[in-house]
Amino acid sequence: MAETKSGALTRRGFLKTTAALAGVAAAGAAAPTLTALAAEYGTGQVAGEGEQLVCGVCRGNCFGQCKINVHVRDGKVVKTSRRPFNSWPEGGAWDRICLRGLSHPYTVYGERRIQYPMRRAGERGSGQWERITWDEAIKEITDEWKRIQAEYGDQAVAYTRGSGNLASINGVGSPLFNVLFNKINATQIKIARDQANTRGINRVVGSLGDWVLNSTQDYINSKTVFVWGANITDAQAQDWPHVANAVEAGVKLVVIDPIYTQLASKADLWIPIQPATDAALTLSMMYVMIDEDAINKPFMKDHTVAPFLVRSDTGKFLHMSDLGVAPREVPVEAQATNIDAARSSSVNYGATGASAGAGTKLIDPYAVLDADGVVKAVEDATDPQLEGTYQFGDVECATAYTLLKEEVMQYPPEKASDICKIPAEDIVELAHIALDGPCIHRLGWGSNSYTNGVHAAHAAITMAALTGQIGYSGAGTGACNWNSGSGTNMLLPNMTAAKNPLISALFLPEIMRTGKYMGKDHPIKALYVYSGNPITNQVNTNEYLNDILGNLELLVTADYTYTDTVHYSDIVLPACHWFEAEDIVLLTGAQCYEYNAKAIDPLYESKTDSDILRLLAAGMGYPDLFPLTDEEYCHKILDTPALAARGISFDELKEKEDLYYKSTKPWIPWAGNSFMTPSGRMEFYVEEPELQFDMGQEYDRDREHLPRYFNPTEAYEGSPQWDKYKLILLSERPRFRVHSMFSDNKYLRELDPEPTVKINPADAEARGLADGEYVEVYNDRGHAVAKLVYNDAIRPGCMVYPKSWQMSQHKAGCWSELLTSAYDPVGVNESYFDNLVEVRAWKEA
C-alpha cells in the first residue's frame, strides 16, 4: 500500500490511528483535478454501423435518472452510453453514466428475466411454477379479488410499490394505479423508507417535496459543504462531479460519518461521529453559536418564530385574540405571501366569522414582546424580542427562542463529546465553520435511519434558522435535491377519491395479525406489488414472511426480473423493462422533465404496467376505465396551463428530450425567505406536532415541539439488547445496486460476486475471526451469512454491509432478517441502522 499523504498523516497511519482511536478527527487534502480525467469522456456516443441511438433514461432510484443512448441494432439493445442533457448544455448536469447505466443490456436480456405469466405450483417459496396465459392470469387474479372483497370487504385487496421504476405512466409516479385501485376501493400500502429527514425538515419549513436542497450545481457557490452520513461517491454517484467541482474551486468539504468512506477520504475534515448521535452534535454546535452570541438575530426576528410567545399551558403560540383583540381582515393575496400571516381562516372565530368579504380572510396575529415591554401583533412590533417571558393571566409565556435556548444549552461541547465520541474542540471548530457561510448541509440516509432520525433533521434545519443560511445561493440545509415538478397534472380521467386510508408498510404486520386498523375491522387478504421488492427491502424479513405473507390469500407481483418477492408470490406477471415503453421521467435533481423513448418492442410476453392495469380493470368489470393511450396520458400530464406558460408540453419534450421546469437555474429552495408553514416563517418550534401516519400510536407531544437528542431504540451502548449484542449493524448503498435493483446483472456480479460484511480488524480478532472467512451475523430476529472483510475504515463497534442482496444470493439468511421493525411514532420510518448484532464463524449445517 502506497504511503499517500493526507494532511499531517499518511493515509496508512491515519487509518491505523482510527482503528485504535475512533474519536479522533483528522484533516485531509482533496486530490487535485478530480474531474480532469473525465473532461474528454465521450466513449460510446457515436452510433455504430447499423445502429440507431434512442433517447433513454436510467430510471432506478439513485436520484440520477441519467439520460442514456440506447444503442439498437436489428431490434436488439446492444449497449448503452452517455447522452448529453440539453437543459444544462454547459455540462452542469449529469454528464456521464455509471457502471449500472452501462450494464443495462445484461438486465434486459438477463437469465432471470420473467418471460411469461406464472402460477405457483408448490408451496410458497418452493420455486415451483406453472406457465399460464395472460387470460388465465388475469381471470384468476380478478376472480380472487372479487371473492376476497365479497367475503372480507373492499379494503381486503391492497396494493403497494417500491421505487424501482421512476416514471410517470409505467412506474412509481404513475397515477394510473390510483385510477384502478381507487375505483375498486382497495387499500394503498406506502413504503416507509428514508422519511425521517423529510419529517424533521418539512415540519420546520413546510413541504416542497420529500427531500429538498439547493441544486447540486449550486454547491460551487458555497464556502463549505457539510455532508452528514452520505457516501455520495457511491450512493449518488451522479452528484459527485458537482462536489468535486466545488472542491476544486476551493470549497471546503466536511464529512460527518462514523465510517471513513470514499467521500471522507476526499474531505478537508472528517468527523467520525458515534452512530445515531447527530442531533447531539448539532445541538452542541448551536450551543457554541449561542454562547458566543454569533447567531443571526435579524434573520431570527424576521424569518423565524423565535420571537413568538408560547403558552406554557397548551404549548401553542399566543395570539392577539387571546388578549381580546379581534382577528383582522386582510386580502387573500397578501396572506399568501406575507411572512407574518397568522393562522388559517378555517379557525372558528365565533361571531366574527372566517371571512369578512370577497377576496379577504381573517387572520389572528401572533403575539410578540416588543422592545418597550408591550405585547403586540408581530407586524406591529418595532423590535420583537428574541428572549423574554410574559405573564398571561395565570399562564406563563416564553418566546420560542427562549425555549430553544434552554434545550440547546444542555449540550456544551464537553457533554456532547462524551455522547458523540469526538473531541470537544472539533465541535467548536465545526460551529465556527458553519457560521462562516454560506454553507450547504446535505443530510444523507445515515442519521435518518434510527428512531431518533426526525430530530437529527429537525436540529439541522434549526441550525440554519440560527445562522440564516438558507434560501440563497450556496446556503441551504436538506437531503439530496428531490422535489416535485410543479405544474404537472396528476388527476386523470376516471380517477376517484380513495375510500380507504393510505397505510404505512410499518403498520402492515399488526394489521395482518389482528385484522384491524385504528380499532376497526380492516382485514387485508390480497396484495398487488409493482416496481418493488418488499421481501428484500423491508425490515424484519421473518416478520414479513410470517405475519404479512402468512396471512395473505393472494400475492401478485408484476416485475421484469426474478426477485425475492416474485419467489414468494402466487401469480407473477412479466412487466416491461424501461426501454420497452415510451414515458415521461421527472429528473428532480436537475429540475428537468425527460423523455424516455421506446427503444425496442416488449420482450417475450411482457407488458407495460399500463396494459396490465387495463387488463385488470376489464377483469374487475371496468373495461373502459382507461380510455386513453399512453401517449394521450402523457399529454394529459404535461399539457397544462401552468407548464404551457413556461413553454413546456409533451410535444416539446419529445423534440427537446429534456426541459428545465424551474424559474431559476440553479434552483434555490426557500428563496426570498418565504416558507410553506402556517406562519410563513421557519417554525423550529413546532406548535402542532403531527404524525406522518396516524394509527392511533402514542407519542410524546411535548418532546416534538423542539429538536432534542435521545437514544435510538437499540443501537447504543447500554440498550436492552446490549448484554447480548455489542456491534451496531450499518449498511452502505453500493455502486453495484440501487436497493435490490441490478442484483441479477451478470456484468455487475462479476465485479461484486457475493454478500460481504466489513469489520474493523480489532473487533474481528477479538472474536477470533479471520479476514475472508464466512461468518454468521445474528440477533434475535434472524441471521445472514457473508464473507468477512477486514477494513480499518470501519469504526470499532460497527459492522457495515452492502445493502439489498437477494435472499437467494446468501448462503443462509439475509440482511433484512436482522433489521428492527421498531419505528419512531412521529416519523414512521424504517430504522435500517438501529440494530445490534453479534458475529461468529459460520458452521455450515
UniProtKB/TrEMBL annotation:
Domain (4Fe-4S Mo/W bis-MGD-type): residue spans on this chain: 51-112
Signal peptide range in chain numbering: 1-38
Top-level division of the source organism's lineage: Bacteria
Keywords in alphabetical order: Iron, Iron-sulfur, Metal-binding, Oxidoreductase, Signal
Pfam families listed in its UniProt record: Molybdop_Fe4S4, Molybdopterin, Molydop_binding
The keyword Signal is annotated on this UniProt entry: yes
Keyword tRNA processing attached: no
Residue ranges the record marks as coiled coil: none
PANTHER family, per database record: OXIDOREDUCTASE YYAE-RELATED (PTHR43742:SF6), TRIMETHYLAMINE-N-OXIDE REDUCTASE (PTHR43742)
Family membership: Belongs to the prokaryotic molybdopterin-containing oxidoreductase family.
Protein name: Molybdopterin-dependent oxidoreductase
